[in-house]
Amino acid sequence: MDDELNSKLKPLRERIDALDAQLIALLNQRASVALEVGEVKKHYNAPVFRPEREMQVIARLQEMSAGPLAADHIASIWREIMAASRALEQTISAAFLGPVGTYSEQAMFEYFGHSIEGLPCPSIDEVFRSVEAGSAQYGVVPVENSTEGAVSRTQDLLLTTSLLVGGELALPIHHNLLTATGKLDGVTRVCAHPQALAQCQRWLTANAPHLERQAVSSNAEAARIAVSDPTVAAIAGDRAATHYGLGVVYSLIQDDPQNRTRFVIVGREPTGPSGRDQTSIIVTVTNEAGAVFKLLEPLALHGVSMTRFESRPARSGAWEYYFYIDIEGHRDEPSVAAALDDLGRKAAFLKILGSYPRSR
């Protein structure tokens, strides 16, 4: 049986080896051209990372492919190829909500690829501060969850920061209940980020009602605590379980099986048009009848679609609100530029957070 199997596999493996030899030669040729691109960019002081260009490359390859590789597989492969090429040009750094093992770190790797220098930060505030101070070139922050809604602290910081939103990523969130032993014996409390506790509250009530729930700064921090304290269970993802060596008591305990968190990428450089973009803005209106209708009228007038609309109190004590709006298209497109120009004249306050490629 083994001889027959090996005889059938041998020619197939030889074909794969030959194809691999061609691939590595082509990849090195590609890397050499990327280095030439880097020299040109350096001469003109252009940014190394261009998310709109990388999205265009991936989209073109997905259209060219006849299978059997799926579109997601192509995106994953080429993201790493382009990340490795970027690393040859210059080391790119990104700040994220730490410690190591958080969903923010996972989002960072999925967006930039693994050839990225990550800077774990103890808070969302510190992520923004690190990028503003130049300690990192980019920041990765959660902005909304499909179950729990907007991440308030990120919303507040987007209002005041000088940074621009240059990209986004929607990450599926799969929560696990983790302990040092992989069992619940002797465990009296469960630690997690407040959003994770909220996203798993029905499951916890039904399956572990005896556990005291304690909010901590991140799920990875909860995992770190659980490593050294046998009375603590943590809610965290697979990356945290692997990094901290914890056992999975129960997997996929989130109440919504389609639970996703949207992350945005903040930095100092604007992102050019990719052909499939959206623009994020913050506006306020005067407190008068029909003010919100007048606010949205320029979008309809210029045929610009709105994909997200949220309000947040302005904390002025006068029942005023900031409206966080996402619209389809790039701010450089004529219809979007015209709509924003009209909107700026009608709004009491307008801040354009940035235009960037859509992830969905």
From TrEMBL:
Pathway assignment? Amino-acid biosynthesis; L-phenylalanine biosynthesis; phenylpyruvate from prephenate: step 1/1; Metabolic intermediate biosynthesis; prephenate biosynthesis; prephenate from chorismate: step 1/1
Domain named Prephenate dehydratase is located at 93-268
The reactions it catalyses are:
chorismate = prephenate; prephenate + H(+) = 3-phenylpyruvate + CO2 + H2O
Protein location: Cytoplasm
Q: What is its EC number?
A: 4.2.1.51, 5.4.99.5
Q: What does this protein do?
A: Catalyzes the Claisen rearrangement of chorismate to prephenate and the decarboxylation/dehydration of prephenate to phenylpyruvate.
This chain belongs to which protein, by name? Bifunctional chorismate mutase/prephenate dehydratase
